[in-house]
Amino acid sequence: MYPRDTVVTVQPFTRQHDGEDVIIGRPETGVFLAVPAEAVELLDYLALGSSVGDAQQHYYEKYGEVPDLEDFLGLLETKGIISNGNQRPAAVNANLRPAANLRYHFADFPQRLAQILFGRSALAVYGLLTLSAISLVVVNPALASRPADLYFPDHRTLSWTIIAIASYTALFLHELGHLIAARAKGINSRIGIGHRLWYLVAETDLSGLWSVPKGDRYMPMLAGIIVDAVSASFLVFLLWVAAQKWFLLPVFMARLVRAMVFTYVLRIMWQCFFFIRTDLYFVIANFCNCRNLLKDTEAFLRNKAAGVLSFLRKVDQSSIPATELRLIRIYAFFWVAGRIAALSVLFAITLPVAWRYIKSVGQAFRAGYSVNPSNFVDAVLLAAYFLLPLTIGMIMWTNSLIRRERM
Predict the structure, then answer these.
(1) Neighbour count for residue 76 (Cβ, 10 Å)
(2) Which one-letter DSSP state was computed for residue 100?
(3) Which end of the chain has fewer CB atoms < 10 Å from its terminal CB, N or C?
(4) What is the DSSP secondary structure assignment for residue 105, as one 8-state letter?
(5) What is the H or E stretch that residue 36 is in?
(6) Using one digit for the tens of pLDDT, what is the confidence trace for 238-279?
(7) Measured between alpha carbons, how far is 341 from 335 in angstroms, rounded to an integer?
(8) What is the pLDDT of residues 109-127, one digit of tens each?
Protein backbone atom coordinates (compact mmCIF):
# COMPACT_ATOMS: atom_id res chain seq x y z
CA MET A 1 0.00 0.00 0.00
CA TYR A 2 2.97 2.30 0.44
CA PRO A 3 5.45 1.85 -2.44
CA ARG A 4 8.65 3.87 -2.42
CA ASP A 5 7.22 6.69 -4.56
CA THR A 6 4.26 7.22 -2.20
CA VAL A 7 3.90 10.71 -0.75
CA VAL A 8 1.72 10.78 2.35
CA THR A 9 0.03 13.76 3.98
CA VAL A 10 1.00 14.14 7.61
CA GLN A 11 -1.65 15.84 9.72
CA PRO A 12 -0.50 18.32 12.41
CA PHE A 13 0.17 16.38 15.61
CA THR A 14 1.30 17.11 19.14
CA ARG A 15 4.39 15.56 20.71
CA GLN A 16 5.45 15.08 24.29
CA HIS A 17 8.54 13.18 25.43
CA ASP A 18 7.62 10.44 27.89
CA GLY A 19 10.64 8.49 29.04
CA GLU A 20 12.32 6.87 26.04
CA ASP A 21 9.23 7.31 23.87
CA VAL A 22 7.40 10.27 22.40
CA ILE A 23 3.62 10.62 22.73
CA ILE A 24 2.22 11.85 19.43
CA GLY A 25 -1.42 12.53 18.73
CA ARG A 26 -4.25 14.64 17.46
CA PRO A 27 -6.37 16.15 20.26
CA GLU A 28 -9.25 16.84 17.87
CA THR A 29 -9.72 13.08 17.35
CA GLY A 30 -8.57 11.93 20.80
CA VAL A 31 -5.91 9.64 19.27
CA PHE A 32 -2.49 9.35 20.92
CA LEU A 33 0.35 6.89 20.33
CA ALA A 34 3.66 6.17 22.04
CA VAL A 35 6.40 5.81 19.41
CA PRO A 36 10.21 5.90 19.40
CA ALA A 37 11.90 9.23 18.78
CA GLU A 38 13.24 7.90 15.47
CA ALA A 39 9.66 7.36 14.27
CA VAL A 40 8.85 11.01 14.95
CA GLU A 41 11.92 11.97 12.96
CA LEU A 42 10.60 9.93 10.03
CA LEU A 43 7.20 11.61 10.31
CA ASP A 44 8.80 15.05 10.27
CA TYR A 45 10.73 14.08 7.14
CA LEU A 46 7.57 12.80 5.44
CA ALA A 47 5.76 16.00 6.44
CA LEU A 48 8.24 17.96 4.31
CA GLY A 49 6.88 16.21 1.22
CA SER A 50 9.46 13.44 0.97
CA SER A 51 8.40 10.10 -0.47
CA VAL A 52 8.42 6.86 1.52
CA GLY A 53 11.58 5.79 -0.35
CA ASP A 54 13.35 9.06 0.43
CA ALA A 55 12.42 8.72 4.10
CA GLN A 56 13.80 5.17 4.18
CA GLN A 57 17.01 6.34 2.51
CA HIS A 58 17.35 9.19 4.99
CA TYR A 59 16.86 6.78 7.88
CA TYR A 60 19.41 4.34 6.40
CA GLU A 61 22.05 7.03 6.01
CA LYS A 62 21.63 8.09 9.64
CA TYR A 63 21.05 4.77 11.42
CA GLY A 64 22.47 2.16 9.04
CA GLU A 65 19.27 0.19 8.48
CA VAL A 66 16.21 0.42 6.24
CA PRO A 67 12.96 0.73 8.24
CA ASP A 68 9.91 -1.31 7.27
CA LEU A 69 7.26 1.41 7.09
CA GLU A 70 4.33 -0.64 5.80
CA ASP A 71 2.76 -1.57 9.16
CA PHE A 72 3.79 1.69 10.79
CA LEU A 73 2.19 3.87 8.12
CA GLY A 74 -0.88 1.64 8.05
CA LEU A 75 -1.36 2.14 11.77
CA LEU A 76 -0.91 5.89 11.46
CA GLU A 77 -3.49 6.01 8.68
CA THR A 78 -6.07 4.15 10.78
CA LYS A 79 -5.44 6.70 13.54
CA GLY A 80 -5.91 9.64 11.18
CA ILE A 81 -2.35 10.93 11.60
CA ILE A 82 -1.48 10.45 7.93
CA SER A 83 -3.39 9.99 4.67
CA ASN A 84 -2.17 8.28 1.55
CA GLY A 85 -2.60 10.68 -1.35
CA ASN A 86 -1.39 8.09 -3.90
CA GLN A 87 -4.21 5.63 -3.24
CA ARG A 88 -7.17 5.43 -5.57
CA PRO A 89 -10.54 5.57 -3.77
CA ALA A 90 -11.42 2.03 -4.86
CA ALA A 91 -8.16 0.69 -3.47
CA VAL A 92 -8.61 2.11 0.02
CA ASN A 93 -8.81 -0.64 2.61
CA ALA A 94 -12.05 -0.53 4.61
CA ASN A 95 -10.00 -1.05 7.77
CA LEU A 96 -8.01 2.14 7.13
CA ARG A 97 -10.74 4.64 7.86
CA PRO A 98 -9.21 7.47 9.86
CA ALA A 99 -10.67 8.51 13.18
CA ALA A 100 -13.29 11.23 12.96
CA ASN A 101 -13.12 14.47 14.90
CA LEU A 102 -14.65 14.24 18.36
CA ARG A 103 -17.36 16.48 19.72
CA TYR A 104 -16.10 17.91 22.98
CA HIS A 105 -18.20 19.20 25.88
CA PHE A 106 -17.87 22.72 27.31
CA ALA A 107 -15.20 23.47 24.72
CA ASP A 108 -16.24 27.14 24.84
CA PHE A 109 -15.64 27.45 28.59
CA PRO A 110 -13.33 30.49 29.02
CA GLN A 111 -9.78 29.28 29.57
CA ARG A 112 -8.93 32.32 31.70
CA LEU A 113 -11.82 31.58 34.07
CA ALA A 114 -10.74 27.93 34.22
CA GLN A 115 -7.23 29.03 35.17
CA ILE A 116 -8.65 31.17 37.99
CA LEU A 117 -10.85 28.36 39.33
CA PHE A 118 -7.89 25.97 39.46
CA GLY A 119 -5.10 28.46 40.09
CA ARG A 120 -2.85 28.51 43.14
CA SER A 121 -4.97 31.02 45.06
CA ALA A 122 -8.15 29.04 44.50
CA LEU A 123 -6.45 25.78 45.46
CA ALA A 124 -5.22 27.37 48.70
CA VAL A 125 -8.82 28.37 49.54
CA TYR A 126 -10.08 24.87 48.69
CA GLY A 127 -7.43 23.32 50.90
CA LEU A 128 -8.26 25.65 53.79
CA LEU A 129 -11.97 24.86 53.52
CA THR A 130 -11.34 21.12 53.48
CA LEU A 131 -8.94 21.17 56.43
CA SER A 132 -11.35 23.35 58.40
CA ALA A 133 -14.21 20.91 57.78
CA ILE A 134 -12.07 17.94 58.84
CA SER A 135 -11.08 19.82 62.00
CA LEU A 136 -14.73 20.47 62.83
CA VAL A 137 -15.55 16.77 62.51
CA VAL A 138 -12.57 15.79 64.70
CA VAL A 139 -13.57 18.29 67.39
CA ASN A 140 -17.29 17.51 67.04
CA PRO A 141 -17.66 13.76 66.26
CA ALA A 142 -21.44 14.23 66.16
CA LEU A 143 -20.97 15.93 62.78
CA ALA A 144 -19.52 12.73 61.24
CA SER A 145 -21.81 10.94 58.81
CA ARG A 146 -22.40 7.20 59.11
CA PRO A 147 -23.79 4.42 56.88
CA ALA A 148 -27.05 4.55 58.81
CA ASP A 149 -27.58 8.05 57.42
CA LEU A 150 -28.27 6.48 54.03
CA TYR A 151 -31.40 4.73 55.31
CA PHE A 152 -34.68 6.66 55.47
CA PRO A 153 -37.50 4.68 57.11
CA ASP A 154 -39.97 7.53 56.47
CA HIS A 155 -40.58 9.61 53.37
CA ARG A 156 -38.50 7.10 51.41
CA THR A 157 -39.47 8.22 47.93
CA LEU A 158 -39.12 11.90 48.69
CA SER A 159 -35.79 11.28 50.43
CA TRP A 160 -34.31 9.27 47.59
CA THR A 161 -35.73 11.60 44.98
CA ILE A 162 -33.76 14.42 46.59
CA ILE A 163 -30.70 12.20 47.17
CA ALA A 164 -30.77 10.92 43.60
CA ILE A 165 -31.01 14.43 42.13
CA ALA A 166 -28.30 15.71 44.46
CA SER A 167 -26.03 12.72 43.77
CA TYR A 168 -26.29 13.00 40.01
CA THR A 169 -25.72 16.74 40.28
CA ALA A 170 -22.63 16.06 42.42
CA LEU A 171 -21.46 13.49 39.88
CA PHE A 172 -21.87 16.00 37.08
CA LEU A 173 -19.94 18.63 39.06
CA HIS A 174 -17.17 16.08 39.69
CA GLU A 175 -16.77 15.45 35.98
CA LEU A 176 -17.18 19.14 35.19
CA GLY A 177 -14.23 19.77 37.51
CA HIS A 178 -12.12 17.53 35.30
CA LEU A 179 -13.28 19.36 32.18
CA ILE A 180 -12.65 22.83 33.59
CA ALA A 181 -9.21 21.91 34.96
CA ALA A 182 -8.34 20.46 31.55
CA ARG A 183 -9.54 23.67 29.88
CA ALA A 184 -7.15 25.56 32.16
CA LYS A 185 -4.38 23.67 30.36
CA GLY A 186 -5.92 24.37 26.95
CA ILE A 187 -7.29 20.82 26.58
CA ASN A 188 -10.83 19.89 25.54
CA SER A 189 -12.55 16.84 27.07
CA ARG A 190 -15.84 14.99 26.96
CA ILE A 191 -18.16 13.24 29.44
CA GLY A 192 -19.61 9.76 28.90
CA ILE A 193 -21.49 7.06 30.84
CA GLY A 194 -19.85 3.83 31.97
CA HIS A 195 -19.45 1.61 35.00
CA ARG A 196 -16.88 0.93 37.68
CA LEU A 197 -17.42 -2.56 39.04
CA TRP A 198 -21.16 -2.71 39.85
CA TYR A 199 -21.70 1.07 40.00
CA LEU A 200 -23.08 3.15 37.14
CA VAL A 201 -20.84 6.20 36.71
CA ALA A 202 -20.11 9.18 34.52
CA GLU A 203 -16.55 9.42 33.25
CA THR A 204 -14.49 12.10 31.57
CA ASP A 205 -12.23 11.35 28.62
CA LEU A 206 -8.98 13.15 29.43
CA SER A 207 -6.90 11.56 26.69
CA GLY A 208 -6.03 15.04 25.45
CA LEU A 209 -3.72 15.39 28.46
CA TRP A 210 -1.16 13.36 26.54
CA SER A 211 -0.53 16.49 24.50
CA VAL A 212 0.73 18.50 27.49
CA PRO A 213 3.83 18.00 29.69
CA LYS A 214 3.67 15.42 32.44
CA GLY A 215 3.53 17.98 35.26
CA ASP A 216 0.47 19.69 33.74
CA ARG A 217 -1.62 16.50 33.87
CA TYR A 218 -2.03 16.20 37.64
CA MET A 219 -4.51 19.00 38.26
CA PRO A 220 -7.10 17.82 35.68
CA MET A 221 -6.76 14.30 37.09
CA LEU A 222 -7.31 15.47 40.69
CA ALA A 223 -9.94 18.12 39.96
CA GLY A 224 -12.90 15.78 40.57
CA ILE A 225 -11.63 14.83 44.04
CA ILE A 226 -11.09 18.50 44.83
CA VAL A 227 -14.68 19.33 43.83
CA ASP A 228 -16.00 16.48 45.99
CA ALA A 229 -13.90 17.50 49.01
CA VAL A 230 -14.96 21.16 48.80
CA SER A 231 -18.64 20.25 48.31
CA ALA A 232 -18.59 17.91 51.30
CA SER A 233 -16.86 20.62 53.35
CA PHE A 234 -19.65 23.11 52.66
CA LEU A 235 -22.22 20.57 53.85
CA VAL A 236 -20.22 19.93 57.03
CA PHE A 237 -20.15 23.68 57.67
CA LEU A 238 -23.92 23.74 57.19
CA LEU A 239 -24.36 21.02 59.82
CA TRP A 240 -22.00 22.79 62.20
CA VAL A 241 -23.77 26.13 61.83
CA ALA A 242 -27.10 24.42 62.49
CA ALA A 243 -25.62 22.71 65.57
CA GLN A 244 -24.63 26.15 66.89
CA LYS A 245 -28.34 27.15 66.69
CA TRP A 246 -27.49 29.98 64.31
CA PHE A 247 -30.44 28.92 62.22
CA LEU A 248 -33.02 26.13 62.28
CA LEU A 249 -32.33 23.14 60.05
CA PRO A 250 -35.32 20.75 60.04
CA VAL A 251 -34.56 17.19 61.11
CA PHE A 252 -35.51 15.82 57.69
CA MET A 253 -33.18 18.24 55.90
CA ALA A 254 -30.37 17.52 58.36
CA ARG A 255 -30.64 13.81 57.59
CA LEU A 256 -30.49 14.52 53.88
CA VAL A 257 -27.38 16.66 54.35
CA ARG A 258 -25.74 13.90 56.41
CA ALA A 259 -26.57 11.37 53.72
CA MET A 260 -25.01 13.56 51.04
CA VAL A 261 -21.85 14.03 53.12
CA PHE A 262 -21.55 10.26 53.40
CA THR A 263 -21.97 9.82 49.64
CA TYR A 264 -19.10 12.26 49.15
CA VAL A 265 -16.98 10.26 51.61
CA LEU A 266 -17.77 7.08 49.67
CA ARG A 267 -16.89 8.77 46.39
CA ILE A 268 -13.51 9.86 47.73
CA MET A 269 -12.91 6.38 49.21
CA TRP A 270 -13.73 5.00 45.77
CA GLN A 271 -10.65 6.72 44.40
CA CYS A 272 -8.54 4.38 46.58
CA PHE A 273 -9.79 1.27 44.77
CA PHE A 274 -6.50 0.93 42.92
CA PHE A 275 -7.50 -2.21 41.02
CA ILE A 276 -9.62 -0.09 38.66
CA ARG A 277 -8.84 3.09 36.72
CA THR A 278 -9.79 5.74 39.26
CA ASP A 279 -8.54 9.32 39.30
CA LEU A 280 -5.80 8.43 41.79
CA TYR A 281 -4.73 5.49 39.64
CA PHE A 282 -4.05 7.81 36.71
CA VAL A 283 -2.09 10.13 39.00
CA ILE A 284 0.12 7.23 40.13
CA ALA A 285 0.52 5.86 36.60
CA ASN A 286 1.50 9.30 35.33
CA PHE A 287 4.00 9.78 38.17
CA CYS A 288 5.59 6.37 37.53
CA ASN A 289 5.67 6.80 33.72
CA CYS A 290 3.79 3.49 33.40
CA ARG A 291 1.18 3.69 30.67
CA ASN A 292 0.01 0.08 31.24
CA LEU A 293 0.45 -0.04 35.02
CA LEU A 294 -2.89 -1.69 35.79
CA LYS A 295 -2.70 -4.29 33.02
CA ASP A 296 0.93 -5.15 33.83
CA THR A 297 0.13 -5.40 37.55
CA GLU A 298 -2.74 -7.78 36.88
CA ALA A 299 -0.43 -9.88 34.70
CA PHE A 300 2.20 -9.86 37.49
CA LEU A 301 -0.36 -11.03 40.06
CA ARG A 302 -1.63 -13.65 37.63
CA ASN A 303 1.90 -15.01 37.26
CA LYS A 304 2.22 -15.18 41.04
CA ALA A 305 -1.06 -17.05 41.28
CA ALA A 306 0.02 -19.37 38.45
CA GLY A 307 2.82 -20.59 40.70
CA VAL A 308 0.13 -22.06 42.96
CA LEU A 309 -2.72 -22.71 40.52
CA SER A 310 -1.44 -24.81 37.67
CA PHE A 311 -4.45 -24.16 35.42
CA LEU A 312 -3.50 -20.48 35.08
CA ARG A 313 -1.32 -19.54 32.13
CA LYS A 314 1.61 -17.24 32.83
CA VAL A 315 2.07 -13.96 30.96
CA ASP A 316 5.47 -13.13 29.50
CA GLN A 317 6.74 -9.93 31.11
CA SER A 318 10.39 -10.29 30.15
CA SER A 319 10.19 -7.20 27.90
CA ILE A 320 9.27 -4.89 30.79
CA PRO A 321 12.27 -2.84 32.00
CA ALA A 322 13.60 -3.75 35.45
CA THR A 323 12.79 -0.30 36.88
CA GLU A 324 9.20 -0.48 35.72
CA LEU A 325 8.88 -4.05 37.00
CA ARG A 326 9.91 -2.89 40.48
CA LEU A 327 7.15 -0.27 40.39
CA ILE A 328 4.68 -2.95 39.31
CA ARG A 329 5.67 -5.10 42.31
CA ILE A 330 5.05 -2.15 44.63
CA TYR A 331 1.77 -1.27 43.00
CA ALA A 332 0.60 -4.89 43.37
CA PHE A 333 0.21 -4.25 47.13
CA PHE A 334 -2.00 -1.23 46.42
CA TRP A 335 -3.99 -3.33 43.94
CA VAL A 336 -4.70 -5.97 46.57
CA ALA A 337 -5.45 -3.34 49.23
CA GLY A 338 -7.87 -1.62 46.88
CA ARG A 339 -9.66 -4.89 46.19
CA ILE A 340 -10.01 -5.54 49.91
CA ALA A 341 -11.28 -1.99 50.48
CA ALA A 342 -13.89 -2.35 47.71
CA LEU A 343 -15.20 -5.62 49.08
CA SER A 344 -15.27 -4.13 52.58
CA VAL A 345 -17.42 -1.22 51.36
CA LEU A 346 -19.66 -3.64 49.47
CA PHE A 347 -20.31 -5.95 52.43
CA ALA A 348 -20.14 -3.36 55.23
CA ILE A 349 -22.10 -0.52 53.63
CA THR A 350 -23.68 -1.13 50.20
CA LEU A 351 -25.29 -4.53 50.78
CA PRO A 352 -26.53 -3.86 54.36
CA VAL A 353 -28.16 -0.57 53.33
CA ALA A 354 -29.59 -2.19 50.21
CA TRP A 355 -30.91 -5.10 52.27
CA ARG A 356 -32.74 -2.76 54.65
CA TYR A 357 -34.45 -1.13 51.71
CA ILE A 358 -35.18 -4.49 50.06
CA LYS A 359 -36.89 -5.70 53.24
CA SER A 360 -38.87 -2.48 53.48
CA VAL A 361 -39.94 -2.67 49.84
CA GLY A 362 -40.73 -6.38 50.17
CA GLN A 363 -43.03 -5.74 53.11
CA ALA A 364 -44.89 -3.07 51.14
CA PHE A 365 -45.25 -5.40 48.13
CA ARG A 366 -46.49 -8.28 50.30
CA ALA A 367 -49.06 -6.02 51.95
CA GLY A 368 -50.29 -4.96 48.52
CA TYR A 369 -51.70 -1.79 47.09
CA SER A 370 -55.09 -2.05 48.72
CA VAL A 371 -53.76 -2.19 52.27
CA ASN A 372 -51.66 0.97 52.03
CA PRO A 373 -51.67 2.60 48.56
CA SER A 374 -49.20 5.36 49.46
CA ASN A 375 -46.75 2.87 50.97
CA PHE A 376 -47.01 0.62 47.91
CA VAL A 377 -46.39 3.47 45.46
CA ASP A 378 -43.59 4.67 47.71
CA ALA A 379 -41.98 1.23 47.50
CA VAL A 380 -42.22 1.09 43.70
CA LEU A 381 -40.62 4.50 43.27
CA LEU A 382 -37.96 3.65 45.84
CA ALA A 383 -37.01 0.55 43.87
CA ALA A 384 -36.63 2.69 40.75
CA TYR A 385 -34.52 5.35 42.46
CA PHE A 386 -32.30 3.13 44.57
CA LEU A 387 -32.14 -0.32 43.02
CA LEU A 388 -32.42 0.33 39.26
CA PRO A 389 -29.04 2.10 38.83
CA LEU A 390 -27.37 -0.55 40.98
CA THR A 391 -28.98 -3.32 38.93
CA ILE A 392 -27.90 -1.74 35.63
CA GLY A 393 -24.38 -1.32 37.01
CA MET A 394 -24.31 -4.96 38.12
CA ILE A 395 -25.43 -6.12 34.66
CA MET A 396 -22.79 -4.00 32.90
CA TRP A 397 -20.11 -5.25 35.30
CA THR A 398 -21.14 -8.91 34.82
CA ASN A 399 -21.19 -8.51 31.03
CA SER A 400 -17.70 -7.00 31.10
CA LEU A 401 -16.44 -10.00 33.10
CA ILE A 402 -18.04 -12.41 30.62
CA ARG A 403 -16.49 -10.59 27.65
CA ARG A 404 -13.09 -10.60 29.36
CA GLU A 405 -13.27 -14.37 29.91
CA ARG A 406 -14.26 -14.98 26.29
CA MET A 407 -11.27 -12.94 25.11
Answers:
(1) 27
(2) P
(3) C
(4) B
(5) strand 31-36
(6) 999 999 988 888 988 999 999 999 999 999 998 999 998 899
(7) 10
(8) 899 999 999 999 999 999 9
